[in-house]
Amino acid sequence: MSVAKKDYKRITTKSLIEMKANGEKISMLTAYDYTMAKIVDTAGIDVILVGDSASNVMAGHETTLPITLDQMIYHASSVVRAIERALVVVDLPFGSYQSDPKEALRSAIRIMKESGGHAVKLEGGKEIKESIKKILNAGIPVMGHLGLTPQSIYKFGTYTVRAKEEEEADKLIEDAKLLERLGCFGLVLEKIPAHLAEKVAQSISIPVIGIGAGGGVDGQVLVIHDMLGMNNEFSPRFLRRYMNLYEGMTTAIGQYVADVKSSDFPNSSEQY
User: Alpha helix locations (H) across 22-127?
Assistant: First the structure.
């Protein structure tokens, strides 16, 4: 028996848990600035992730590691000012939570107070348990992130699919259940086998959002620059491009250049 889709005027962590219980898939995209976030929110997205992927797509770094807490707060505050419906989740950047639970709490508090974000996301399982507990005890909602964890790229040495071997898969399942027990409201699974992701989603009650984790999870997330085709150099199997903005924008800008050079722009109706 299907459950009627509920019309949420504002998405909360409770909304996401209800959506999973009702079998409604959760949509999630990244955004890093006011203008893009306004468009994404108006289009009806459920969750906006202010990802540390801003380090790559906004700042041009090779990895997510260089972005700072101050920079994440800047991006998050820009996004929060734009939204009316979506839940805004903000990544805690590398170095702001891994080693010291007190530092993790301070970082999370700064994000919540200075950006107005609604929740934070941390990468890892058992190894960051104390940091997660500290943040949750302060009343700050936490989303977990397992599988491929980009902040650990130098540990893994590659962006290849994670948890293909039984030992790592078993640890991932244990970590997912731990995150649920601790009180996380949701979990991102990145680049793991689809059958494993589906097994995780079925074994816990909190929503599981996938990126490169197949369709058996509770929702999907993509980087907005990738799904709109602004980044034409990134083509993983899990990416579906919904537009080709790279081509459209370069054509439009090229036409603008030509019109300026030829004195076609501005014409008589485009001046005062």
Answer: 34-42, 54-57, 69-80, 101-115
pLDDT above 90 (res 84)? yes
Whether residue 127 lies in the annotated active site:
no
> How far apart are the C-alpha atoms of 198 and 192, rounded to whole Å?
10
Handedness of CA 179, 184, 188, 194 (dihedral sign): positive
Alpha helices in 49-164 (DSSP H): 54-57, 69-80, 101-115, 129-137, 153-156
Lowest mean pLDDT among 67-81, 147-161, 230-244: 147-161
Segment (H or E) for 88: strand 87-91
Q: Is the dihedral of CA 230, 79, 43, 235 positive or negative?
A: positive
Q: How much of the chain is helix, strand and coil, in % rounded to 5?
A: 45, 15, 45
C-alpha pair distances (Å), 44 with each of 39, 48, 151: 9, 10, 29
Beta-sheet strands, E only, within 192-256: 208-211, 219-222
pLDDT level of residue 1 (50, 70, 90 thresholds): very low
CA angle 227, 147, 117 (to 5 degrees): 60
Q: What is the mean pLDDT of residues 109-113?
A: 98
The answer on pLDDT for 207 being more than 90 is yes
- CA dist 91 and 73 (Å) reads 10
Q: For residues 161 and 183, is the Cβ–Cβ distance under 8 A?
A: no
Return the pLDDT at 165. Answer: 84
Section 200-217 average pLDDT: 98
Q: Residue 235 class from Cβ within 10 Å (0-12 exposed, 13-18 middle, 19+ buried)?
A: exposed
- Give pTM, 2 decimals: 0.94
The residue annotated as part of the active site, out of 123, 180, 190, 198, is 190
pLDDT for 86 equals 98
